[in-house]
Design a protein that fits this description.
With 609 residues, this protein is mostly helical. The protein has 31 helices and no strands.
């Protein structure tokens, strides 16, 4: 759920690209959930799922009034971490007490020692300590009266007598109140250099860095604060999330601008394309028909044939063939536009894909796949109304097309409208009982609705009726894993892996391998075997972002932070859309910050790991 309270709109890529959509999402939910429960990751990055576009990182103000008020003496470091943030009731009492002593403050100021750089050298150590305490107390009263320039003067004299981190921190609070952020950084840095675990100073410097738009530095300080404070300060923890998003957004936009448009992994492409029922070649483009190699129809036929091979090279060939078909001109322009738009969408070229699909609809208003794909694009862009309108238009032209109801059900599913999703999946099944993914998705939806028995019954029927389809065993295994039925889940993943090898040796879906890795990780903490399975998945599909990100999390769980960072950055480079890149970079930046924080606070590694 996003911070606005609305349903987060997840990338259609994260749903359709994995056929029974929630499978990959639940994989990530389980992985990140398990890790956070076991304190393996320093950060809880909202609802960040690397393959989803809805970040779910909450925005909340990181500063509270009581953090900036000097006055209360610090005790031991342990006690200080507990008491650094005073409760509002005691703060009000202190304020009232300060106000009631305003006349006395004025009298006390009159008898304060007059210290400067020339005279302080003649004072004994005892005199310096006594003078510093008096000056600091007077500075606290001036701060309480909001006389910040006077408080700065008094704290500065106290610092001349005794360089104490409290004095620097208190003076930084004055600069903070005046909005002099560079001075805040200077004073808090001095305080932290004397006491690296000074949480209040770290938080104040982090806030100043954020005001100066030095987000990476702010993130580092808030993270250190969270670690030292044992993650008890919710505002600081939420500030980490907010800053992770800011840092990731800045880097993500730059990465996207420099990123070439390319197809994602063949696993992704295959799973997206198979979320639509197979269609016969248009008349005149049958494989048995020989066409002129210089014609657009030939290249359209070539592209359709390449799609069926389901390999990385074949998909690249298909994309080029559809481009060439449009360049040369074809008798099947609406079909060519549909396919070219599909491959542009897969490359992340949303605007061009939208234009192609819209033109396809204009040429052939009965081509329901173009409506469905345009609806998917609109949903990814956050325009649910446009998506719903396209589904309605498709139904108007062909109310008996089961693809419409299947993909509209996906819309309901990712918005959390499970009852409506179940109705549409059921309608899709009624129109075509042979499309396995409608059955799988219905079972997953029933599970999400809490109807566990119905869900399990649906999957048992799927196994009976589609016993040679590996996806059934993979997604059934997902649900068993969610119930912590590890042995049964692994048996299902093994069946799916074996079937994939036998039926699709050149285009194997690697998700069962990743799921098995996750099962072994959760069940036995068998990192070695889990890593081997991820490595095998990446050998088969080097561009599989889920395999890359899963490997990153496994490495992070073992404390192999440098290696984990490499994989998180690789996952970002494999992402298609800006939102997906930002989510991946959020993990990368969290890991990078952990690397930077760990050396100064090596004695706190027990908290990190």
């Amino acid at each position: 759920m996003s911070s606005t309270g609305k349903h987060p709109i997840q990338s259609v890529h994260s749903i359709a690209a994995n056929s029974a959509g929630p499978a990959s999402t639940s994989l990530w939910t389980r992985l990140s959930g398990y890790i956070s429960q076991h304190k393996a990751v320093v950060y809880t990055v909202g609802a960040v799922v690397i393959i989803a576009t809805a970040g779910g990182i909450y925005y909340i103000s990181q500063s509270t009034p009581n953090e900036d008020e000097p006055g209360k003496e610090r005790k031991s470091k342990k006690d200080r971490r507990k008491k650094d943030i005073k409760d509002s009731a005691s703060e009000k009492a202190d304020k009232i007490q300060a106000d009631s002593k305003k006349p006395a403050a004025a009298n006390t100021d009159n008898v304060l020692p007059d210290v400067d750089e020339n005279t302080v050298g003649s004072l004994t150590d005892e005199q310096r300590s006594t003078y510093a305490a008096k000056l600091k107390a007077a500075g606290n009263r001036a701060y309480g009266n909001q006389d910040y320039p006077r408080a700065i003067e008094l704290y500065s004299k106290a610092i001349l007598c005794k360089r104490d981190p409290i004095f620097f921190s208190n003076r930084s609070a004055c600069y903070n109140a005046l909005g002099n952020w560079r001075k805040v950084v200077d004073d808090t840095t001095a305080a932290i250099s004397m006491d690296p675990e000074y949480v209040k100073a770290l938080n104040r410097r982090a806030n100043a860095f954020e005001q100066l738009e030095k987000y990476s530095e702010a993130l580092l300080d808030f993270t250190a604060s969270c670690i030292i404070d044992g993650f008890r300060n919710e505002a600081s923890a939420q500030s980490v999330e907010r800053l992770l998003k800011k840092v990731a957004e800045a880097k993500g936009k730059a990465m996207l601008d420099a990123k070439p448009k390319r197809l994602p992994s063949p696993t992704f492409v295959s799973n997206y394309l198979q979320s639509f029922r197979p269609q016969p070649f248009p008349k005149g483009l049958d494989e048995s028909v020989t066409l002129d190699e210089n014609s657009g129809d030939y290249h359209l036929q070539l592209g359709l044939e390449a799609v069926k091979r389901k390999t990385a090279d074949a998909y690249e060939e298909a994309g080029e063939a559809f481009e060439q078909a449009m360049k040369l001109g074809t008798n099947h322009e609406a079909t060519a536009l549909n396919w070219r738009g599909t491959f542009k969408y897969l490359r992340g070229d949303t605007a061009s894909a939208l234009a192609d699909l819209s033109q396809s609809i204009e040429l052939d208003p009965t081509m329901t796949q173009s409506y469905i794909k345009r609806a998917s694009l609109s949903l990814e862009l956050g325009d649910r109304e446009a998506a719903a309108a396209d589904f309605q238009a498709a139904i108007k032209h062909n109310p008996d097309d089961p693809d419409i109801y299947y993909h509209r059900a996906q819309l309901h599913f990712i918005c959390g409208e499970f009852a409506d999703a179940a109705k549409d999946y059921q309608k899709s099944i009624e129109l075509d009982r042979d499309f396995i993914f409608s059955h799988i998705q219905l079972g997953v939806t029933q599970y999400k609705m809490g109807s566990i028995a119905s869900s399990m019954a649906t999957f048992r029927r799927c196994i009976k009726n589609f016993d040679k389809v590996p996806d059934v065993y993979n997604y059934y295994g997902e649900l068993l894993l969610d119930q912590q039925k590890y042995q049964e889940a692994i048996e299902k993943f093994d069946l799916a892996i074996e079937m994939e090898k036998q039926t699709k040796p050149m285009g194997m879906n690697v998700l069962p391998l990743i799921n098995k890795a996750l099962a072994l990780f959760q069940w036995k903490q068998d990192f070695s075997e889990a890593e081997k399975l991820c490595e095998r998945a990446l050998l088969l599909d080097p561009d599989c972002d889920i395999a890359v990100a899963t490997m990153a999390q496994l490495l992070l769980q073992q404390g192999k932070v440098n290696q984990a960072l490499e994989y998180f950055e690789r996952a970002a480079s494999l992402s298609r859309t800006e939102a997906e890149i930002i989510n991946a970079l959020s993990y990368a930046e969290a890991t990078r910050t952990q690397l930077q924080v760990s050396p100064p606070y090596s004695n706190l590694n027990r908290i990190i790991w």
